Amino acid sequence: MRYLPKSDTERRQMLDALGLDSLEQLYSHLPQDVLLNRPLNLPAGKSEYEIVDYFRARGDENAAGYASFLGAGVYHHYRPVMVDVVVSRGEFLTSYTPYQAEIAQGTLTTIFEFQTMICQLTGMDVANASMYDGSTAVPEAAMMARRITGRDKVLAAKTVHPEYRMVLDTYSRYEGAPVAEIGYDSESGTLDFAGLEKQLDEQTAAVIIQSPNFLGSIEDWRKAAALAHKKGALLVYVFTEAVSLGLLEPPRDADIVVGELQSFAHPPSYGGPFAGIMATKERFIRQLPGRLAGETKDSNGNRAFCLTLSTREQHIRREKATSNICTNQALIALMATVFLSVYGKQGLRELAGQNLSKAHYLGGGVKRRFSAPFFNEFAVKTNGGSPDEVNAELLKRKIIGGLPLGRFYPELSDCLLLCATEMSKREQMDAVKKAIA
Prior knowledge:
Blueprint: H1 8-18, H2 23-26, H3 48-61, E1 67-68, H4 81-87, H5 90-93, H6 105-122, E2 126-127, H7 134-149, E3 153-157, H8 162-175, E4 179-182, H9 193-199, E5 204-210, H10 221-230, E6 234-239, E7 256-260, E8 276-280, E9 291-297, E10 303-310, H11 330-363, E11 377-381, H12 387-395, E12 399-400, E13 403-404, E14 415-419, H13 426-436
Parallel strand pairs: 1-12, 3-4, 3-5, 5-6, 6-7
Antiparallel strand pairs: 2-8, 7-8, 9-10, 11-14, 13-14
């Protein structure tokens, strides 16, 4: 009874007001077979000490103490302790959303800094205050391209994260807007440009590519942009591994950049919550979904922040809304902002360099499936044994292996997608190579 909000006196008063004598009379209109006339089948309550011990034991059964070479859109990176120090402050942790700008200057400041960093990272002119995650950012970009061009057709590379494409297909199916798939070159693992040229036409609103793509290959986004622009379409550039932007040139020729910031201080955490980004050229700013914080001055002439654009149904007339995205991942975006502040430009470059070096060490001595350059992730052909058998062998050594690609690409059923980050150790990488051999 300790956690129930109503006292016996209050229950009695409510029953009196209804002219009833008991709770049983309150439910008398219900069939007997739907009434629960016994205690719930739950164990007795535990003390706080027992609960802590229980969850520590469950944690030990999970990935604690295991090395991981699993990427595929969610990556194992180091989280600076400063991140939790900042985001655990009550002003950030308990606030929901900056509706009242005059008392939310701290939140609006962090959003503004986040937007600035995303623009620097992507080479775009403007970024919004974050999206739910990378998967929902992709269909938002497709809808934005359709509004800008007045066209319906979208071309998405088969090497875009398969689950992102599933979300895109769900959005598009109920919009009645077609999404066509562009294949990949079986040797390089990159976009099939001949197929792209064949499918591009004057009805194409956007071409969506990912780099590094889901197979780990780095794409020629300049060539893709040139082909798209030649037909009046927009190029949407997608990333899932944000650390790659510490080394790869920002996709300045793209029109819209969307991606996932999980790598920036967010633990894998069973798949979320994460934070997506969306950035674009200044001329498209009015079609940007979500919200955007801008800098201004207050009545005393001091630097201040406010929600400059909020093209969503809660703030403007529904028929003028660009999207039904109703908030942004402010706390998760703040984690990424602190992460970028701690590392800085040079630190991010060095972190990306470590990822590149370790992945190439892991890739040496195994049979890579594709020839294109890669960052920290690549497909490898298993030597006789199946990918599942390789992973089972690795688990015996407390190592989580890669993703069996046959799950999404039947033609690659003999391949594993492996990922190495700064957290990977030489002896663990040697064990992976030995298991594959």
